[in-house]
Amino acid sequence: MGDGVLSQDEINALLSGGIPDAAPADDGGGGSGGGAGELSSEEIDTIGEVANISMGSAATSLFALVNIKVEISTPVVTETNWDELASQYTDKCVVVRIGYTKGIDGSNVLVLKENDVKVITDLMMGGDGTNTDGEITELHLSAISEAMNQMMGASATSLSSMLGMMVDISPPTATLTDLTAISGGEIDSFLESNFVRIAFKMEIGDLVDSEMMQLYPISLAKEMCNAVQNTMENDSKSTVDSGVAPEPAPAAAPPPEAAPQAAAPPPQAAAPPPQMDPNMMAGQQMPPYMYMPQPTINVQPAQFTPFGPGFSAQFAQENIDLILDVPLDVTVELGRTNKTIQDILDFAPGTIIELNKIAGEPIDVLVNGKYVAKGEVVVIEESFGVRITEIIKE
Questions:
Q1: What is the distance between the alpha carbons of residues 297 and 319, in angstroms, rounded to a whole number?
Q2: Whether the Cβ atoms of residue 360 and residue 390 lie closer than 8 Å to each other
Q3: How far is residue 98's CA from residue 175's CA, in Å, rounded to a whole number?
Q4: Nearest CA to 95 among 106, 108, 104, 83?
Q5: Are 228 and 222 in contact (CB under 8 A)?
Q6: DSSP 8-59
Q7: How deeply is 123 buried, as exposed, middle or buried, from its count of CB atoms within 10 A (0-12, 13-18, 19+)?
Q8: Which of 147-169 are b and which e, b meaning 16 or more Cβ less than 10 Å from the residue's Cβ?
Q9: 222 Ramachandran zone, left/alpha/beta (phi>0; psi -120 to 50)
Q10: CA pair distance 66, 128, nearest whole angstrom
Q11: 50-67 in b/e burial notation, b at 16+ Cβ within 10 A?
Q12: What domains can be seen in the chain, in order of their start residue?
């Protein structure tokens, strides 16, 4: 109890009149920052393995959102407290809180750096990940909440398999936070005391090479370790039970002397067996196996008509005639431009949108979305038209 806080084991020892055991020493895998050492080395290894598998699923979900290779490294699990954690962040960061609603009781907190959130949200909105200027807005927080919802949903699915129970999460909530200016209890009550910190190295293409933190209450970490242990024990029992050799079946009664003759294979050109009188069969035991001759099947190789030199030409005109009356969408594109969501929300009657075409430049003609020609705008009576000036050949 070097930090002035009694663990549950120490309290139990005092109530029973005994002398509390010294807190376990740091084993190098966890317990830094806090010194309570409430998790054993086996539990730290288990939490690391659970986090590694679940975050692997989360990385796959993030890749589907940003369409860029995402790598999340093997986690490093430690015990820490809020003061030590906050001292590692000099800038504001985005804190995402996710609660578990089914299977396990508790919540976890994800801590991401501000620039990483800007890169992820820009990629999600169709950018190239370089539009990171400006402050974090509600749009960024909403987008990263959706990304974390997809990632932690996939993580919960992996947890369900590892823990042997259905695990579900609540919708994530994201806030921009200065960790040095608040206490952990303002985010989640479990951050007021020692908790589990799981650090991941996250790489997103060439844009992000950073660290992401996942914070667990120690009670939740122990609950997950117990669930994993129970699942492993149940799997072991199932394997042992399925491996027990079945009891040997009782020996069958010896067949009558005529049985070997009936079971013996008939000659090559055996005739169908003679019909037996039912009256003669009554009261007699039939042999256990009876050979039944199979009908002869005639198998021949398949025959295909060879393709001659004029085969394709014979059907080419006939095939194109079948689709000549199929309607196609013809689109004339005057120009294009890129706008942010904020710009689009500012649209109003009278807003002028500048396109990427210069006045007098040929316009594009597309058929079913495929660029096929260039042309110029003409007026036919009261309607616009397009005069084709160039056919695009690939």
A1: 40
A2: no
A3: 12
A4: 108
A5: no
A6: HHHHHHHHTTSPPPPPPPP-SSS-TTT----S-HHHHHHHHHHHHHHHHHHH
A7: buried
A8: bbbbbbbbbbebbbebbeeebeb
A9: alpha
A10: 9
A11: bbbebbebbbebbeebbe
A12: 8-232 (3.40.1550.10), 323-347+355-391 (2.30.330.10)
Which residues, other chains included, contact 261 with Cβ-Cβ below 8 Å and sequence gap of 6+?
A: none
How many residues are present in the chain? 394
Six-digit token string for 42: 């086996």
Contact predicate 116/205, CB 8 Å: no
* Ramachandran class of 368: left when φ > 0, alpha when ψ lies in -120 to 50, beta otherwise: left
Nearest CA-CA partner of 224 in 54, 380, 361, 43: 43
First to last CA, the chain: 77
Q: For residues 147 and 172, is the Cβ–Cβ distance under 8 A?
A: no
Mark out the alpha helices in the chain (DSSP H runs). Answer: 8-15, 41-66, 82-86, 114-124, 138-163, 218-242, 259-263, 278-281, 311-322, 341-345
On whether the CB atoms of residues 252 and 237 are closer than 8 A, the answer is no
What is the pTM for the complete model shown? Answer: 0.52
121's tokens:
């949200």
CA nearest to 109, candidates 182, 38, 40, 163: 182
Contact 218, 33 (CB under 8 A): no
**Which residues, in sequence order, are CB contacts of 118 under 8 Å at separation 6+?**
131, 132, 136, 140
Residue 129 region by backbone torsions, left for phi larger than 0, else alpha for psi between -120 and 50, else beta:
left
CB 372: neighbour CB atoms within 10 A? 15
Which tokens hold the place of 282?
A: 């009554």
Give pLDDT tens digits along the chain (394 positions): 445 566 666 665 555 544 444 444 344 344 333 344 788 888 899 998 888 888 888 888 888 888 888 888 889 999 999 999 988 888 889 999 999 888 888 888 999 999 999 999 999 888 888 888 888 999 899 999 999 998 888 888 888 888 888 888 889 999 999 998 898 888 888 999 999 999 999 999 899 999 999 998 999 888 888 888 888 887 777 666 655 555 554 544 454 444 444 444 444 544 454 454 444 444 444 444 454 556 677 777 777 767 666 555 555 555 677 778 888 999 999 888 998 998 898 898 988 888 888 888 899 999 988 989 999 988 888 888 999 999 988 6
